[in-house]
């Protein structure tokens, strides 16, 4: 037990620059306290003492603001930073060396008892603040879930998931994607220049559509001028009655909708 405790303290000091000493971590880090109490609760749960496991879990929630179901499996060197509002469900599995920040939910989307309802986090997964990982799928080793994301699908190892619902960004193609995204004026991670990448993409499409309409209107105006000369000939009219020679596309109004 003491070896695990020393291991936990060491991993917190390694990952949190605000941790000044082992004594500070031992006495002032609710994530550590929640994990220690979860081990007691999980041990009782595995021995069939279900009520005792739930009661210890409830005490841990009351003391730390972190709720870990006694049935959940939590690996070694897991760091729950700050921790307030973290919820880890009954069938969740948290792999070794994972990092979980405040406000994270590892929740389920099924009401069927006895099924795998909650996610499995592989080794070294980072789940950022406010994220919701919902469902009985696997988040691969070394993957990351961006802050405030809502993840509803599996994530490959080494990938990043961001957004609502979360989109998967594969780590190996990050550099290429970021380079291409920069040309379009938005970031694949949604963290550049103060705007959402979907909104930026929509604005680009609106501007493109407005440009097309402008060019079409200019073409019809040119045809209309040419037809004025051709009208001297009997029965000749180059411009159809329904030709649109003026622009009606309100790009500014549509852009305001996606701000």
Question: Tags for this entry?
Answer:
single chain, 259 residues, alpha/beta, UDP N-Acetylglucosamine Acyltransferase, domain 1, 5-stranded parallel beta sheet, 15 strands
Secondary-structure blueprint:
Blueprint: H1 2-15, H2 22-28, H3 30-46, H4 50-64, E1 67-68, E2 73-74, E3 79-80, E4 87-88, E5 93-94, E6 99-100, E7 105-107, E8 120-121, E9 126-127, E10 132-134, E11 138-139, E12 144-145, E13 150-151, E14 160-162, E15 167-169, H5 174-184, H6 197-230, H7 251-257
Parallel strand pairs: 1-4, 2-5, 3-6, 4-7, 5-8, 6-9, 7-10, 8-11, 9-12, 10-13, 12-14
Antiparallel strand pairs: 14-15
Helix pairs in contact: 3-4
- The oligomeric state is single chain
Number of DSSP helices? 7
Q: Would you count the extended β strands for me? A: 15
CATH topology of the largest domain: UDP N-Acetylglucosamine Acyltransferase, domain 1
Supply the number of structural domains. Answer: 2
Note the overall shape: elongated
Description:
Strand 14 (160-162) and strand 15 (167-169) form a beta hairpin. This protein folds into two domains: 2-172, Hexapeptide repeat proteins (UDP N-Acetylglucosamine Acyltransferase, domain 1, 3 Solenoid); 197-257. Helices cover 41% and strands 13% of the residues. It is α/β, with parallel strands linked by helices. Mean pLDDT is 81; it is low at 180-195.
